[in-house]
Amino acid sequence: xxxxxxxxxxxxxxxxxxxxxxxxxxxxxxxxxxxxxxxxxxxxxxxxxxxxxxxxxxxxxxxxxxxxxxxxxxxxxxxxxxxxxxxxxxxxxxxxxxxxxxxxxxxxxxxxxxxxxxxxxxxxxxxxxxxxxxxxxxxxxxxxxxxxxxxxxxxxxxxxxxxxxxxxxxxxxxxxxxxxxxxxxxxxxxxxxxxxxxxxxxxxxxxxxxxxxxxxxxxxxxxxxxxxxxxxxxxxxxxxxxxxxxxxxxxxxxxxxxxxxxxxxxxxxxxxxxxxxxxxxxxxxxxxxxxxxxxxxxxxxxxxxxxxxxxxxxxxxxxxxxxxxxxxxxxxxxxxxxxxxxxxxxxxxxxxxxxxxxxxxxxxxxxxxxxxxxxxxxxxxxxxxxxxxxxxxxxxxxxxxxxxxxxxxxxxxxxxxxx
Length: 419
Known about the structure:
- This protein is α/β, with parallel strands linked by helices and 419 residues long.
- The protein has 2 domains: 1-42, no CATH class; 74-267 and 314-416, Spore Coat Polysaccharide Biosynthesis Protein SpsA, Chain A (Alpha-Beta Complex), CATH 3.90.550.
- It is built from 14 helices and 20 strands.
- It has helices spanning 3-14, 18-27, 30-41, 45-53, 79-94, 131-146, 161-170, 216-222, 225-231, 252-260, 299-303, 325-331, 386-389, 402-416; strands spanning 66-67, 72-73, 98-103, 121-124, 127-130, 152-156, 181-185, 188-190, 192-193, 208-210, 236-241, 265-271, 281-285, 288-292, 315-324, 339-343, 347-348, 354-355, 362-366, 380-383.
- The strands form 6 sheets. Strands 2-20-12-15-11-3-6-7 form an 8-stranded mixed sheet, with helices on both faces. A 3-stranded antiparallel sheet has the order 1-13-14, with no helix packed on it.
- Strand 4 (121-124) and strand 5 (127-130) form a beta hairpin.
- Helix 1 (3-14) packs across helix 3 (30-41) and helix 5 crosses helix 10.
- The radius of gyration is 23 Å and the shape is globular.
- The mean pLDDT is 95.
């Protein structure tokens, strides 16, 4: 065998990947073995091994260091404030200093949809609409209003990139100028089984999974897009998900508040439905911004209220974020913490047999976009009305389903006439 083969086998021995060695040496054909060797050569096994070793070590949060974080409520702004924020924000947009990034790396599996989530279609009072189409309509409306063409960046994944690009091509980008649309892929990490061995898929390669939306920072950098934005004079970048059909991707108020408060990052929030809604909320931890999961807040803190009777920790993260280009540049060089998820992963065992599993048996590692907030002393938060800006499609039925989201979308149109 060649030097590459020997080098990779030694690498596998170093990290106790004995099942993989057995497959390569005794179960796979030469071509299958070399394809796997080529893939493993590029993997950072030291990184994934360390993540595995710490998979069960859930970081403990010192609850005494969790504090309320202030926000501005859209309905509580004075006319003077509203006008000032709007003017500041519109100046940024009108002068071509604004861009939009859509995170669209997921598949529609939970919706029973075979394809990227952005290609999922809903039935509205305005006719059938794809999720990508809804975003294009919002961008196009802003372009007409402000006399610009806003650059649109779409973060895909290795799993869905080809399908996403093909879909947009086939639909002529829903009329959006193709030259102003850029695709880039988020990062990947291998999945590793409970016994510490890499999971091998039916196609006899290591199972690779997207490493979370927190990889957006480094993915933008690796694709050369932060430098491109800087060269094009982009100063403010909105980042949101593909599955909130009421997401306001262009909002001068959010831009204006962030500038006025002198911050480099900001987010929108909605108030919790009740104290125990299973959502992440904004707070400060150790004096810096943080999104804390509902599992990390004790009951008494979930239920705590202020003098006005409002929840102290009631600002829900709705994945609607704004970054100054300086913030993106800083975050692109940061190493965010990884969160561990225990998932079901079908695999090829050491005898070369394909095993379909019914229970979680492997670890997936993800970083979250909001973990980057803690690198800053402060951030701006604009609380908006849930019924106006939050209609996510996550589940096939029940809460946050196509049915509930479409109703919110249609109700909005009935109230205001258009999105």
